[in-house]
Structure formats: C-alpha cells, structure tokens
Design goal:
alpha+beta; Membrane-bound Lytic Murein Transglycosylase D, Chain A; L,D-transpeptidase catalytic domain-like; 3 domains; eight-stranded mixed beta sheet; 9 helices
C-alpha cells in the first residue's frame, strides 16, 4: 500500500516539475512566465523595419520628456527603467558628461515640435570660442539629448547615415552654446569626417559620377548646375574625394558628388557661421560681425569671389597687402541691393576681432577658415543672416 502511494506521489511530482520546465510556471521575476522574454523580442526589432526615430525601441522621440538631467548613464531605476545605452556608458567612462541636474531645468521637447533640446547655457560665446577650454565645466546633457545621440548611433548602425546627420545637425543648431553643444558638435564632426569627407557613400545626399575622357572638374561642375540645378564648387569635390590636383582627373575615376546645393547660415547671437550641404551642417566657424549690430539680416547671394582683394573705403582703394587693407586673403561678396551695398564674407588682418562685433558690417573670418570656405562656396550660394 505504501509503495503504491509513493508511486502516485512520484508521478504527480514529475508532472508538476514538467509543467514548470515547459511553461515557466509563475516564476519569481515579473508576472508573465520567462522573465524578460517579451522585452528582449521588442528590443530586437530590426531598425531597417523602422520608419522614424519614434519607432526605435528606447527612442527619445515620442516619449514623454523627463526633467532629469543626466550625464552618461541614465539615472532611472526600478521596474521599467531603461538600461544605459552604449553611448551613455562611454560618456560616463570618458568623463564627457556630468551627472546631476543642470542649470537649464526643463528638458528638450519632442522632435516633432521642432525643439531638439537646448541643454543648459553653461557658457556663452559672446566673447570667446565655442570649444571648451581646459578647466571648463563638463557637458551636462539632458536625458533627451542623450537619447537622441543614442538614436543616431542606431541609425548609423542600420545604414541610415543621412538620418543621423540630419538629426545631429538640427540638434546642434538648436542647442545653446556651451560644453553640451560642443559634445554634440564633436559627434556630428566625427560623422561628417567618416561619411562626407571620405569615399564612403551615405544612403542619401551624394551620388557617384564617372569621369569620361575629356572631362574637367570645372566643366563637370558647370554641367551639374545647368542640367541638375545643383551648385557644386570644384574645391569641395576635391576635398570630398581627396583630390590634390584636379588637372589630373582620369577617365574612369568615380567621383563622390553632393546632390544638393550648399548654403550658409550666420547666427549673429553666437558669432557662428555654418556651411550646409542641404540640411547637413558640414562645418561651422567662429566669425566677427558688425559693430553696433550693423551686419544686415536676411538672405543674400554670393555674387563675386576674389583672391587677395583690394579694399575701397571712403573713396580710397588699398591694394592687397597694404597695411590699411583689412580684407585679408579672400573675399566673397554679396549681390548688391538698392538698400545694401558692399557687404560680404572676408578674411581679416585683425584676427583678434573674430568672435566680436568690430567690423563695418561684413562677416570676418580667420585666414585658414576663410580660405577653406572659399574653396567650397560656388557663386550663387545663398547666405542667410539671422
């Protein structure tokens, strides 16, 4: 009798253990069987199936903003907390972001609202340059900014480089000057170096053009303007493709060429000039502006380009190299209008004035900066001053 009871008990025990193994039982973590199974499946959705950043698991877009300011790893904990991303882990370990609440208080709004996050105005560029100098405060990124940077990493990993470049360009444009913006701009600069100024082809914004016998770079640029309505400067093509001498193009060479015209934005509040390809903020420069707010605002068109320009002031013309010629080595003149005459972008013999309001209304640049920009800007480029 006893052996029969033990046999029945053994069968029941075996059935119960089998149920636990097969179905997971009630478990000790969570309330839905194997802990973390559903969450893992959601996190593993291929990014190629996503149509917008709001569909990215853990994306900053479409989520409710948090008022916490984080540096590196997310501060959230407890049930449902988002695990730190690779970006946050690296930011913390490298000391690129400081923990705690920033002085800005409110976080960034949703991308759909047009505000990607301003961060905290830790430092102004009114009388200095944007890059943080030794001893400057570490960047304090809002939680939304950290998430957006993580989204951009996901975009790049999924081959959606153009999305990452556009989102970072917009984020940099809308973030106030300071260490946080420097960190964002540094990330954008790294992507620009990797995907714009290299042979690598992003998913959008560029195309390949095969050089044919008899082609010249100047001739190709003219044809792209007339046939495709795209302004491209030969110097920019050389920079993108690493061409030292455009006269040595060979038939069969494949050139990486932008599919959108460049444009320039000048932000008077921050003394910042940004060179764009379409909506990608390729590079920015610190500039000098007109004293007493005399740099005119609005849209202008680059009409003339000169190397070693002469300067005419109050009826007197000073040749290049003259001690009274303050234009420096390059001049990109705006098309004259009835109400505005003689404005443009140029170099300067007074480099200490860059970053301040000291000119007669023109945009001043350092020698190496203006000479670089001069090669990238074709005539007809639109310049917006705001």
């Amino acid at each position: 009798m006893r052996s029969a009871i033990l046999s029945v008990a053994g069968v029941i025990l075996a059935l119960w253990l089998g149920y636990e193994v097969i179905f997971g039982g009630s478990g000790s973590e969570g309330d839905g069987g194997a802990p973390g199974r559903v969450a893992a499946e959601v996190r593993e959705i291929p990014l190629t199936q996503l149509e917008s950043p709001s569909k990215v698991p853990g994306s900053s877009v479409g989520n409710e903003p948090s008022e916490s300011m984080v540096g590196g790893a997310a501060a959230a904990s407890g049930p449902g907390a988002r695990p730190p991303t690779g970006l946050e882990t690296r930011a913390t370990s490298s000391g690129l972001a400081a923990s705690g609440r920033g002085t800005g208080g409110a976080p960034a709004n949703d991308m759909a609202s047009g505000d990607l996050g301003s961060g905290a105005p830790e430092r102004s560029r009114e009388n200095g340059t944007d890059p943080a100098s030794p001893g400057s405060p570490e960047p304090v990124l809002s939680e939304r900014q950290v998430l957006i940077l993580a989204d951009c990493e996901k975009f790049v990993g999924a081959g959606r480089v153009s999305d990452a470049l556009l989102v970072l360009s917009r984020l940099a444009r809308q973030t106030v000057p300071g260490p946080a913006r420097c960190h964002i701009r540094a990330r954008l600069d790294a992507y620009v170096a990797e995907f714009v100024f290299s042979s690598r082809m992003p998913d959008a914004g560029f195309r390949r053009v095969v050089v044919e016998r008899g082609d010249t770079l100047d001739g190709l640029c003219k044809s792209w303007k007339s046939e495709d309505d795209v302004l491209v400067a030969p110097g920019l093509v050389c920079r993108i493709n690493g061409i030292a001498d455009p006269r040595r193009l060979r038939a069969g060479d494949a050139l990486k060429v932008p599919t959108t015209s460049p444009r320039i934005e000048v932000d008077k509040a921050t003394h910042r000039l940004v060179f764009y390809l379409g909506d990608i903020a390729v590079k920015e420069y610190l500039v000098g502006l007109g004293k007493d707010g005399s740099t005119p605002e609005g849209s202008f068109v680059v009409k003339t380009k000169q190397i070693d320009p002469a300067w005419t002031w109050k009826g007197t013309t000073y040749p290049a190299g003259h001690s009274s010629n303050i234009l420096g080595s390059r001049w990109m003149g705006f098309e004259n209008r009835d109400d505005l005459f003689g404005y443009g972008i140029h170099g300067t013999t007074q480099p200490e004035s860059v970053g301040t309001d000291a000119s007669n209304g023109c945009v001043r640049m350092l020698k190496q900066d203006v000479e670089e920009l001069f090669e990238w800007v074709p005539r007809g480029t639109v310049v917006t001053v705001r």
